[in-house]
Design goal:
Layout lengths: L31 H12 L14 H14 L13 E5 L2 H11 L7 E5 L4 H9 L3 E5 L20 E5 L10 H17 L6 E5 L7 E4 L11 E4 L6 E5 L12 E5 L2 H11 L3 E2 L12 E2 L10 H34 L3 E2 L14 E5 L7 H15 L7 E2 L12 H4 L28 H7 L2 E5 L6 H19 L3
Parallel strand pairs: 2-3, 2-4, 4-5, 5-8
Antiparallel strand pairs: 1-9, 6-7, 8-9, 10-11, 12-13, 13-15, 14-15
Helix pairs in contact: 1-7, 2-7, 3-4, 3-6, 7-11, 8-11
The protein binds pyridoxal-5'-phosphate.
């Protein structure tokens, strides 16, 4: 596709609202292959992941293939050998809960998490009776590596970066910082902090750095996100890059952690033998979560996984063209973690609007006016401050510290942990970004005409609202 300089858009009349392809990247590409995969499971009357009358092991196949996929470099064949272990579960939220449980997170522990995420990133911490500790964001709107250390205490158990809306965090720098913190903790006799990457919104993206939370596992290089930390989770919910409607995946390269994750996602029994005496495993390790994926989800996700890199390529290319157009309007797109490495998926295009000199209330009115002006044109715009329970201060249950059941985690834990606050103002850098950032969705199947339409809408709203308000 050719670039369309802003000069070709002299005539800024109001564009006629025109439908765009859907904003569900994976579902948009469903065809006969997904239908056949689902039908095969139904014809076999074997929708359960561990056995059935004509069981073909779809979920087990997905686990093997996803491990190989994550070990591959973008655009290259998936290696046969991988040091990653994958457990498929029934949702991304379930994946987070199981992963934190397997990592030993419990009452009185603290988990560092960014303030721009999805509510599940926080609810999984609270459900495990631990305290969420907010870390500020950098200009990628993801966890700021430089803001981690001041939030760490002896109670910190896990750090959870949550790369948002297709854009990678500076994960290489985050891992370096964690390694430095863990070296200091070792000297103090404290256990190391583990890293859990919540990659629900960036499946298939890649970033630069060295994996490993204690020592670098190899030299810095390009790796798929979800392979930097001690564990990672992904989601297959319909907004995600590939989808089975619902579903989640938990990844680790630590065999002991993998054993716990597999056991806890099911009944709490580890399947240590190639053929356990019972289908659920023989060695009890804890209380299970009941988070098994169905064979229907597994079969559909396997087909979708083969499409993932090409879906991302489409979004990334469209995103790049829309982003340069936004720049040509004089607006500032969100920063990339690594400007020389196009590892982001391109799912959303975020840009800041000029808010200098406006009070908080004026900024909110302005941001809402911009989003409202874009909305009738079908671009799925969001003013980040209003982005529902992706924003810490919009989560009422967090701000008010609602307990799980009758008590805890805040009131049941060490007194110091209840000092955490979650009201707006806790993360000044993120707060400023949220009130100055607009996002528009980048569907995975845009035609040249669709992209021209998006440019016309952006130019029109820029002239009539962004530069006027
Ligand atoms: C960052 C993040 N974490 C976790 C989840 C939870 O995934 P799910 O909806 O599959 O439970 C989502 C998506 O919904 C998400 O965006």
């Amino acid at each position: 596709m050719t670039a369309h300089p802003v000069a070709s858009l002299k005539n800024r009349e109001k564009p006629t609202p025109t439908p765009l392809p859907s904003a569900f990247p994976g579902a948009e590409w469903y065809d006969d292959e997904e239908i056949q995969a689902a039908t095969r499971v139904l014809r076999n009357r074997s929708p359960f992941r561990y056995y059935g009358p004509k069981w073909e092991g779809e979920v087990a196949g997905l686990e093997r293939e996803f491990a190989r996929f994550l070990s591959s470099r973008p655009g290259e064949p998936w290696p046969e050998k991988t040091d990653l272990f994958v457990t498929a579960v029934n949702s991304g939220t379930g994946a987070l809960e199981v992963a934190l449980d397997a990592m030993g997170v419990g009452e009185g522990d603290e988990v560092l998490v960014q303030g721009f995420m999805w509510i599940s990133s926080i609810s999984a911490i609270v459900r495990n009776r631990a305290i969420p500790v907010l870390v500020d964001s950098d200009d990628t709107l993801n966890m700021d590596p430089a803001s981690i250390r001041s939030r760490v205490t002896p109670r910190t158990r896990v750090i959870m970066p949550v790369p948002m809306m297709g854009g990678c965090a500076r994960i290489g720098a985050i891992m370096e910082e964690v390694r430095a913190i863990n070296a200091d903790r070792e000297k103090q006799g404290l256990p190391p902090i583990l890293v859990l990457e919540d990659c629900a919104q960036v499946m298939g993206a890649h970033a630069t750095g060295a994996p490993g939370s204690r020592v670098p596992l190899g030299s810095p290089g390009i790796h798929r996100v979800g392979t930097f930390g001690d564990a990672a989770i992904f989601s297959l919910q319909i907004n995600k890059n590939i989808t089975a409607g619902e579903g989640g995946l938990v990844v680790t390269r630590d065999p002991a952690l993998a054993r716990l994750i597999e056991a806890l996602h099911n009944t709490g029994f580890a399947r240590d033998e190639a053929q356990p005496k019972t289908w659920y495993g023989d060695s009890p390790v804890g209380w299970g979560h009941g988070r098994r994926m169905t064979e229907l989800q597994g079969a559909i996700a396997r087909v979708q996984l083969k499409r993932l890199d090409s879906i991302i390529l489409r979004m990334r290319e469209s995103h790049g063209r829309i982003e340069s157009f936004i720049r040509s309007l004089g607006l500032v797109p969100r920063s990339r973690a690594d400007a020389s490495n196009p590892g982001d998926t391109g799912y959303y295009c975020l840009f800041s609007i000029p808010v200098q000199g406006r009070s908080h209330d004026e900024q909110v009115r302005y941001g809402r006016a911009v989003a409202d002006a874009l909305a009738p044109f079908g671009l799925n715009p969001w003013f980040m401050h209003d982005f529902e329970v992706h924003v810490y201060y919009n989560i009422q249950s967090l701000v008010e510290k609602w307990p799980v059941h009758k008590a805890g985690p805040w009131d049941a834990s060490a007194a110091a942990t209840s000092l955490q606050v979650y009201d707006r103002g806790t993360l000044p850098r993120l707060d400023a970004l949220l009130t100055s950032t607009i996002g528009i969705n980048v569907p995975s199947r845009l035609s040249e005409a669709d992209e021209n339409y998006i440019r016309r809408v952006l130019a029109y709203v820029n002239d009539n609202v962004i530069q006027q308000s």
